Amino acid sequence: xxxxxxxxxxxxxxxxYYLGASQPSRFLKKFSPSLALIASRPLEAGSNDGYxxxxxxxxxxxxxxxxxxxAPAKIVKYDSNLVPVATATYLVNGSTGGIARAIDADSSGxxxxxxxxxxxxxxxxxxxxxxxxxxxxxxxxxxxxxxGAWLARQGAGLYVSGRVGSQFVVKKFDFNTLxx
Length: 180
Prior knowledge:
Layout (H helix, E strand, L loop, with lengths): L4 E6 L5 E7 L2 E7 L5 E6 L7 E5 L4 E5 L10 E5 L5 E6 L9 E7 L5 E6 L8 E6 L7 E5 L4 E8 L2 E8 L2 E8 L6
Antiparallel strand pairs: 1-2, 2-3, 3-4, 5-6, 6-7, 7-8, 9-10, 10-11, 11-12, 13-14, 14-15
C-alpha cells in the first residue's frame, strides 16, 4: 500500500476498493479478488479522508469537509470503473465542515451516513439516509453523544455503536422506517 490512511469496501464480485491518501495526494483504487490493481482514480484537491461502502454494484465514499468552500463534506457514488455518477453535499449545523463518522449501504442502494460537527462534548452527530440517487436526504436520527461511532446492518436493523461518556453503547434502529 502506498497510502498512510485509508478505507476499504468490497463489491458483489469480491473486488476490493481502497480510499487512501499519501500526502498530498488522495486516490480511490480498485483491486481484483486476487489483489491485482484494476483501476486507480486520483481524487480532487480537498477530498479529505473518509469512509467507503458498497451496495454490491456501486461504491460510495463519504468525504470529510473543511471550513472552506473548496472542500465541502460530500458523498460520491462511483460505478465499477471508478467514474462518479452522483454527488451529494451535506451540511452540519449550516457548515460544510462535517466529519463522516461511518457509512453503510444496503442492496437497494440506500445509503446511511453518520456525520458530526466535530469531536468532544459540544459535537452534534446525525444519521442521514439517502436514496440510491443520493437525493432526498433526511436527518433521520439525532445520534449526538456517540463518540467514535460505527454503523452495521443486519436485516431491517441498523446499529449505531460508540462510546457515550465512559460507556460503550449499541443502539438499534429499523432502517425501513427511516424516510428517504
